[in-house]
Design goal:
It is a single chain. The chain is of the alpha/beta class. It has a domain at 4-110: GTPase HflX, N-terminal domain (Rossmann fold, 3-Layer(aba) Sandwich). The chain is 45% helix and 14% strand. The protein has a four-stranded parallel beta sheet, sandwiched between helices. Helix 3 links the parallel strand 3 (84-87) and strand 4. The longest helix is centred in the first third of the chain and has 15 residues, at 30-44. The chain is globular and about 40 Å long.
Length: 175
């Protein structure tokens, strides 16, 4: 169903760059924000290979980062051979998709990281179901980026819909 890189995120043992976008008027200490993210990342078993902080009053609507910081992030990914970029901020589906296209690296935001941690530690059947429901709700608006490798596919006899149905439409119906 999903991109093989994202089948089960399984961030364990991956090399990651941590990114935080901090508003100067928010009076949040950037080190405190990164320390909290590092704690989450440690819980997930990710190896931190770099950090990047963007001081920006309003996140850029397309990428959350300014052009200069995005270029710096691309260079850092190549330099440290990062497999993941983990944002302290929640990203919109389009922001995540745009950053992923620019860097060629899997993008994980704070919510996805937390859901992955819960999925890893859920033991009871009820807890696993609750985490799965939360993941489905989180990934529903992000389905588009998981199926970018497919063009329109042909419908067949008994497919339920006409020719040309997108896999994305099928997934949305299933959810």
């Amino acid at each position: 169903m999903a991109d093989p890189k994202r089948e089960e995120l399984q961030v364990k043992t991956k090399r990651a760059i941590l990114v935080s976008v901090v508003s100067p008027s928010n009076h949040i200490d950037k080190n405190q924000a990164l320390d909290e993210l590092k704690g989450l990342v440690d819980t997930a078993g990710v190896k931190v290979v770099g950090t990047l902080v963007q001081n920006r009053e309003n996140p850029h609507p397309a990428t959350c980062l300014g052009k200069g910081k995005l270029d710096e992030l691309k260079q850092m990914v190549k330099h440290v051979d990062a497999e993941l970029i983990i944002f302290d901020n929640n990203l919109s589906p389009s922001q995540g998709r745009n950053i992923e296209e620019e860097t060629g690296t899997i993008i994980v935001d704070r919510s996805e990281l937390i859901l992955d941690i819960f999925a890893t530690h859920a033991k009871t059947y009820e807890a696993k179901l609750q985490v799965e429901l939360a993941q489905l709700l989180y990934f529903r608006p992000r389905l588009k980026r998981l199926w970018t490798h497919l063009e329109r596919i042909e419908g067949g006899v008994g497919a339920g819909r006409g020719p040309g149905e997108k896999q994305l439409e099928t997934d949305r119906r299933l959810l």
